[in-house]
Amino acid sequence: MKSLLKLHSLKSFLRPSLPSAIAHGLPGRQSSHFTYVPDTVAEAEGETVRQNLFQSINSALDFALATDDSAVIFGEDVGFGGVFRCTVGLQDKYGKDRVFNTPLCEQGIAGFAIGVAVGGATSIAEMQFADYIFPAFDQIVNEAAKYRYRSGNLFDCGKLTIRAPCGAVGHGALYHSQSPEAYFAHTPGLKIVVPRGPIKAKGLLLSCIRDDNPCIFLEPKVLYRSAVEMVPTKEYTLPLSSADIVDEGDDITLLGWGTQVHVLREVAQIARQQLNVSCEVIDLVTILPWDRQTVFNSVKKTGRLIIAHEAPITNGFGAEIAAAVQNECFLHLEAPIERVCGFDTPFPHVFEPFYLPDKWRCFSAIKKLLNY
Amino acid sequence: MAGRLSWSAISVARRSFGLQLRGSQAQLINSRTLSSALGEEQPNFPGSRSKWTEKLEFVQPDLYDGIPVYRVMNRKGEVIDPAYDPKLEKDTLVKMYKRMTMLNTMDRIMYESQRQGRISFYMTNYGEEGTHIGSAAALDDNDLVYGQYREAGVLMWRGFPLDRFMNQCYGNEGDMGKGRQMPVHYGSTEHKFVTISSPLATQMPQAVGTAYAFKRAQNGLCVICYFGEGTSSEGDAHAAFNFSATLDCPIIFFCRNNGYAISTPTSEQYRGDGVAARGPAYGMATIRVDGNDVFAVYNATKAARHLAVTENRPVLIEAMTYRPTLPSHPTPPHTPGEDRALHPL
Ligand SMILES: Cc1ncc(C[n+]2csc(CCOP(=O)(O)OP(=O)(O)O)c2C)c(N)n1
Ligand SMILES: [Mg+2]
Questions:
Q1: Which of A173, A279, B147, B209 is deepest in the core (most CB within 10 A)?
Q2: Where is the stretch described as Disordered (chain B) (predicted)?
């Protein structure tokens, strides 16, 4: 009830700033609850090319196939490039036996993918939407995550990577918007990674593919086209389980992943301009196993922590972080840890802007913590 | 409705990101809508083949008499048609007989051990000795086995020593699985036997994935996947059948139809003609075999292996057996606790 009331007042507060397309519910509207902040790389990284997220993912997959003859990529409609174009051109380049469609069956894709890895090949599976990964839950949680453990290391499926588009997209409603990271974070044996943009995605995806453990790579689908960066053309990997401090600050730590990192960067700017407050923005990057030290160090410095994610607040991954931080940083905290998240409802359609932990909700959380 | 749903994913992608379908895709859609107009003599719908009919008639499940049960021997153990005698070497025959007997003996001892509380759980293979040994003997010893939990005879055929069976069941320091799983969850890389997992049917799509990897590696091997008729009701079973056929995988699906899933009879498990009847519907070569006839199982598996490996196709074998209750092992009392000890999986 309380959150509903909050939502109502937010609604009137937000209306003037909403783009007209969203406000009027027009088809083809674009989500704009964040301003994308592109990453850059040092010149030493060599040649770069302008790429959006699906193109940089495509480039990572291209390297994965080129450098490893055993690697195969498959899923629903993957052959013609995938509904989000991430595998476009790869079937033409590498052949139908390496890049192919499967029947429409997520539990089958996951089970098959595990078996490919057990058979010694590099296995890269695509779930068309993270919302449809649940039929595969058993295979991922009971099989992939436990393969090495239960066989005493006789068998494993470490060569498995499952990619899935996740998160808000502006009009995806309850079945094209979910962020299921927390369900899987409850499962030892998995790695879960969420990139915030094209440069990170390319290196992280290659790391997942080459990591010796089953990985779930969640791609914020709203970034596929909207996120554009100058991405190194070379083959490169980026470390897993390593969070990024994307903006340094002293007064308050803002923690998120995926699209939410961009929301938080804008919030940090607003806080600096309007409140003269210095925010440290951290991209967690890897949900499991997460980089506890970077987060703890930051909170010990700032004394305040806001965690923001799109998934519903109850049992979201923010809850785990909050519990760990209070345990580790208790005497450094100047205020209770605040979570700004999706509400405990299905992901709405026309009310998406009110559901998301947008910059204004995050900004008011900053004010709340500063005035605690 | 179906059409709308199937295009919803692409339309979401297209609406948000201006995804354009390429020419070939557009043509595909056109030919789909045109197909009913084409082929006045024969219908030409993609994804099916048949003829027109003007009779309003439902296809009934009793359309045919049922898939026959292939056998080599009669009930007295005599070979019926000498052409189908596998003509195995005497040494092989003796080895098969000895392993079947040893399996039966091990089961007796382990079953008693469980009843005496020495181990937490056991699963006997009674009545299925012929399916295990007959199929295992027909394989290449390097073909990868994905089992369910009642395939100890396959491991035994490959030389998994009694010590290691014991180590696993007792979860002692010699257990290669480090004592992490309940008894009968054997596994051995040496014997190409993937560690057993308790959740039923999960091994089935995995076996297909491995068969695909084998095909690409061109190692000349196939994968055999054992499962019970009860397990064939799981979604993973459907996924596995369909993936194996569409992706042309060298795999043998070996259904051990022993009539029961714990207490549930097949009459409450499915309504069709067993599991074999599903094979053709998935586009798989299929055979039903008398699981008590070790030569029939041998012949069927040998032929299935040949098909799988030379033509990269899945083959379905349904072996019909019984799960007998031996006189020396009266039906266990049905207190909930004891039931759990018997079937806690
Ligand atoms: C997913 C799952 N559901 C239920 C069980 C519990 N369970 C263990 S054995 C069994 C019966 C299996 O019967 P069937 O496949 O016919 O094999 P059989 O025991 O007859 O060889 C059940 C229901 C399980 N292990 N996994
Ligand atoms: Mg059964």
A1: B209
A2: 323-345
Domains of chain B: 1-65 (no CATH), 69-341 (3.40.50.970)
CA-to-CA separations, A32 to A17, A28, A224, in angstroms, rounded = 10, 13, 14
Contact A92, A136 (CB under 8 A): no
Secondary element (H or E) of residue A14: helix A2-14
Which site among A72, A83, A87 would you substitute to test the B interface, given the most B Cβ atoms closer than 10 Å to its Cβ?
A83
Q: Is the Cβ–Cβ distance between A240 and A339 less than 8 Å?
A: no
Q: Which CATH architecture has domain A244-370?
A: 3-Layer(aba) Sandwich (3.40)
DSSP-assigned letters across all residues of B122-170:
----TT-HHHHHHHHHHS-TTSEEE--S--HHHHHHTT--HHHHHHHHH
| Alpha-carbon span B310 to B121, nearest angstrom | 40
Which residues make Cβ contacts (< 8 Å) with residue B327, sequence separation at least 6? none
Predicted confidence (pLDDT) per residue in A291-322, tens digit: 999 999 999 999 999 999 999 999 999 999 99
Does residue B211 belong to the interface with chain A, where contact is any CB pair within 8 Å? yes
Its pTM stands at: 0.87
| CA distance linking residue B181 with residue B186, whole number of Å | 9
Q: Determine whether A310 is an active site residue.
A: no
**A202: exposed, middle or buried (C-beta count within 10 Å: 0-12, 13-18, 19+)?**
buried
Segment B72-130, tens digit of pLDDT: 999 999 999 999 999 999 999 999 999 999 999 999 999 999 999 999 999 999 999 99
State the CB neighbour count (10 A cutoff) for residue A303. 17
List the single best residue of B24, B176, B243, B249 to mutate versus A (max A Cβ within 10 A).
B243
Length of chain B: 345
Catalytic-residue membership of A320: no
Interval between CA B265 and ligand 2 midpoint (Å): 8
Confidence of residue B44 (pLDDT cuts 50, 70, 90): confident
Say yes or no for a CB contact (<8 Å) between B212 and A110: no
Q: Where are the domains positioned within chain A?
A: 25-232, 244-370
Query: B130 CB near a chain A CB, below 8 Å?
Result: no
Could you write out the DSSP letters of every residue in A22-43? Answer: HHTT-TT----SS--------G
Q: Distances in Å between the alpha carbon of A41 and those of A37, A132, A292?
A: 13, 35, 25
What is the Cβ-side half-sphere exposure of residue B202, based on CA atoms within 13 angstroms? Answer: 23
What band does A20 get if pLDDT is binned at 50, 70 and 90? very low
Instruction: Tell the CATH superfamily of the A25-232 domain.
Output: Thiamin diphosphate (ThDP)-binding fold, Pyr/PP domains (3.40.50.970)
pLDDT digits (tens, 9 = 90+) for A340-371: 999 999 999 999 999 999 999 999 999 999 99
